[in-house]
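Z., the sequence and structure:
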Amino acid sequence: MSSHKMRRLAIITTHPIQYYAPLFQLLQQRNYIAIKVFYTWGQSALPKHDPGFGKAIAWDIPLLDGYPYEFMENTSAQPGSHHGKGIVNPTLIPGITDWHPDAILVFGWLYDSHLKAMRHFKNKIPVLFRGDSTLLDEKPGIKSLLRFAFLRWVYRFADYALYPGSNNKAYFKKYGFSEEQLIFAPHAVDNERFAASRTDEAQILRAQLGLTTDDVLILYAGKFEEKKAPALLVDAFIELQNPNCHLLMVGNGQLENALKQSAAGKPNIHFMDFQNQTYMPVLYQACDLFCLPSKGPNETWGLAVNEAMASNKAILVSNKVGCAVDLVHHGQNGAIFNSGDKGSLLKALKTLTGQKTILTALGKNSGEKIKDWNFTKIAEAIEYLAAKPKN
């Protein structure tokens, strides 16, 4: 490296999560740029109550190790990431200014202090933006026109956007970004952690569920909420009427009782409570097919699909799942069905569960494809933008 000082990147995000911590750790390890993460929700975000799961969630993998960070005081009367006024940080802009960054990276503009920071630093230092919204749920009308005008205004305060996939890129283009301002930075999970063999535990789980080696296990793992459409999967599975097929529903949430009632008396449908991060690879490795049936709105990506693919599994998703167009290809590693259409889902289930050997081959293709969707690619994109000279 040359003798000029290392460029500094301030990162603004609400709270530590399992999908970003490995990226921050990697940026720190690579040592091409200096980073500091400013967490805006405040210290109270650990552990946080997750309304979707209906319980407090404290992740069991380290989220604050290996990189510099600071929790900013959040003075919101109702702190939280579910509404714009839930993140209010009077000391954020002064705190970042004192650190003297060469660029800032903002995760999400919705929050009061995030948008204020974008507006404050625009034209002072480059403002990088990361979000994953899509146009999948857009409906025409007056609201849409107002939203169009508002979002064009918001994104004037960003110099570059890091997009994770095709649907998000289309969204950024609609709201004013040029091709030159858009940099691909794939959504990623810790591929190695999900690929590392947990075969013994997976076999124990299959045995506990009463499966033979030849049986096919379909897995749903996520919140039991309307947006994810777990009821559609349960209903379609019941109609599948395949004695060699089992369905494992993992999670908690408001639909839990209704789902269990629908599945009552069906020995091939199994339920497990929410499982933490260290056990998730076992669940994926025990299944033959992972299904995310979401109808939205706002299934902007679906990182569980990355996790299942890293575990070498075939994938079945609806066309309202943001990652579908980039990660799932008919006949290569799974299938895409029409959101909300039980017939379409049932047809895909019949085709995919017909032969277990086919699922194994599709799963291998998943594992190969997801190798390129990794944290290194995101780190390289961030480093590239952070090192660009100011216009």
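The chain is about 35% helix and 15% strand. The mean pLDDT is 94.

Let me know what you think.
H.
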